[in-house]
Write a structure and sequence with these properties.
Jelly Rolls, disordered N terminus, mainly beta, Immunoglobulin-like, seven-stranded antiparallel sheet
């Protein structure tokens, strides 16, 4: 009896907990967020400000903040409904339903005023419970989301049955998606006999360009497919360099994740990855209804030519599918002749620098083979006109090491964002790790070095100076700088031509020696030259002499030339008692 009583008490408390939330039993159910308790623009991670409330919905008390209700665009440029890359959506941004500037959506506010970003904050809102147990129908969730922003975070849909544990990432969107509202759906057919709660979970990005908006939440019946393979995720494993020179290219492997959203199992599930001269298959075999499986390729891709490399992913199953549009994907990299970059952007709206003093910002590069580094390319987002910057190359061993070589300083221009600075001396380097930086030389003036949140790799980006370096990620910046290395053949051949005003002289007669090019010079034998370390010098010789000049062109590059100065020999004979000197050649 005690065991039965305990069971009854536990069931009672679970039931009481479940019904403390609103219950939905009539469908379709729509929440368009048009009746918030208030509108707000406070940043979402401000725990002192309670977010808007909606009938049956709960702001999660166990996260890092609250969703806000808003209309007509958010206040930050480059993010939120109606915004452009450099403009806000205020006054023009609409919601998804009813699609007007006066319509309301919920969103996560990354910053407000001079506040700091809610970097990495989890902001959750919980739906009512949806009871599917009595109808015998199948259900799906439809919704709209808006995720414009170069520092955009991630959005997830999580589900739990009753008051059980959450099943995370039932649906996800990682990073920026589009400049418009996007409609998407989640198949709930595997919960057709359950009572479930849905959590909308936002993980916020690194700065103000990461406002996530959400609207038009609809749960309704639908007819699921019997077989429906969905290619959920594709990736190039351990991809650090979407721009990489052919000589540095090693090999690539690929991964894929497939979900079966059909009512029956799918069999002989394969994901085939192809590009010119390459094909590999990920064999996933049988996937149960609503199950997920993933795998990696067994054959590595190795590039033999430079150019854009596009990899097509195609999912196949034994069963007949009515919709195969969600079975495919494409990824790409660029194998270059000379350029190595941790990103492949054309531009960015994000910039980083120092408003307090000077500093260097840069990142690590790993070379698979010996090569010649000739220059460093970088992007300045908002150039502070007239300010000076320069680039440096360092060794790297568990952190930036000694400086190898630098470039000359340049002044930033109002009309230029990309800059390529040649190294003062080309760097013939062996395989290994190196560190390239851009130095902000003007104090108290942020140089706005371009960066992106894509392709982030641990322990790669630093700021500081040779006196000390700090990882950017340690201060909350999980970024990749728009800094690239350039490689290429560098002609080390140098030539100098020596000339003279006279190639035949009498002993002690003056002549002029000249070298046509070089940075510094050394004439030998030095005893005959008046200024043996200059490009042009007077000289005299008493015997026939081979004169050599060494011209130094800097960076260890020299050239040599020589010429012969003939000196006439003297002889004697008597003539009419007069002593005559005859110069003989």
């Amino acid at each position: 009896m005690r065991k039965n009583l305990s069971f009854i008490l536990i069931a009672f408390f679970l039931l009481a907990s479940l019904y403390s939330y609103a219950q939905v039993t009539t469908y379709p159910y729509t929440e368009d967020f048009e009746s918030p308790s208030l509108h707000q623009t406070d940043k979402s991670c401000d725990l002192t400000v309670t977010g808007a409330s909606f009938a049956g919905w709960i702001q999660d008390p166990n996260d890092d903040g609250d969703w806000r209700a808003d209309s007509s665009g958010t206040g930050s440029p480059g993010t939120g409904p109606g915004a452009g890359r450099a403009t806000t959506g205020v006054g023009v941004g609409t919601d998804a339903n009813p699609g007007t500037t006066s319509g309301t959506y919920i969103y996560t506010e990354a910053t407000f005023g001079t506040g700091t970003a809610c970097n990495g904050s989890n902001i959750n809102i919980l739906s009512p419970y949806f009871d599917f147990s009595a109808s015998g129908e199948y259900y799906q969730l439809r919704f709209n989301y808006h995720m414009l922003g170069t520092s955009m975070g991630n959005l997830f849909v999580d589900i739990r049955i009753g008051t059980g544990s959450w099943s995370n990432n039932i649906w996800s969107q990682l990073g920026e998606k589009d400049s418009a509202w996007v409609l998407d759906s989640v198949n709930l057919a595997n919960y057709n006999s359950d009572s479930i709660q849905i959590r909308i979970r936002a993980v916020m990005g690194q700065d103000f360009t990461s406002d996530i908006a959400f609207d038009n939440f609809v749960v309704d019946t639908f007819s699921p497919k019997l077989a429906d393979a969905i290619l959920l995720e594709t990736s190039i494993l351990d991809l650090e360099y979407p721009l990489i020179p052919l000589v540095q290219f090693d090999s690539l492997e690929f991964s894929a994740k497939v979900k079966n959203e059909g009512l029956n199992e799918i069999t002989s599930t394969n994901v085939v990855i192809t590009t010119a001269g390459y094909s590999s298959t990920i064999n996933l075999d049988t996937i149960a209804p609503f199950g997920i499986d993933s795998g990696t390729t067994s054959v590595k891709y190795r590039a033999t030519t430079a150019g854009l490399k596009e990899f097509a992913f195609n999912t196949t199953v034994n069963e007949t599918e009515l919709d195969i549009t969600n079975n495919v994907d494409t990824l790409s990299i660029t194998v270059t002749d000379t350029v190595m970059g941790r990103e492949d952007l054309v531009s960015t709206t994000l910039g980083i620098g120092s408003n307090n003093g000077v500093l260097e910002l840069g990142q690590r590069f790993e070379l698979n083979n010996a090569d010649t580094i000739t220059s460093i390319t970088f992007y300045i987002t908002n150039p502070p006109v007239g300010d000076s910057v320069k680039a440096h190359l360092y060794t790297y061993a568990n952190g930036p090491g000694s400086r190898i070589v630098s470039t000359s300083a340049i002044a930033l221009s109002a009309t230029q964002n990309w800059y390529t600075l040649p190294l003062e001396c080309i760097a013939d380097v062996s395989a290994g790790e190196y560190f390239a930086t851009i130095e902000q030389m003007t104090s108290m003036s942020n140089m706005s070095l371009g960066y992106t949140n894509d392709y982030f790799t641990d322990s790669s980006s630093y700021f500081g100076s040779p006196a000390g370096w700090t990882l950017l990620e340690s201060v909350g910046f999980f970024t990749t700088q728009l800094v690239r290395l350039n490689f290429g053949h560098y002609d080390t051949y140098r030539e100098v031509n020596a000339s003279t005003t006279k190639d035949t002289i009498c002993p002690g007669e003056l002549l002029t020696l000249q070298a046509d090019q070089g940075e510094s010079f050394s004439w030998s034998p030095a005893a005959g030259a008046f200024s043996p370390l200059t490009q042009t010098t007077l000289a005299t010789y008493n015997t026939t002499t081979t004169v050599k000049v060494i011209a130094d062109f800097g960076c260890g590059l020299t050239a040599t030339d020589s010429l012969i100065i003939f000196v006439k020999k003297s002889g004697q004979r008597k003539n009419l008692g007069i002593r005559q000197i005859i110069w003989l050649v």
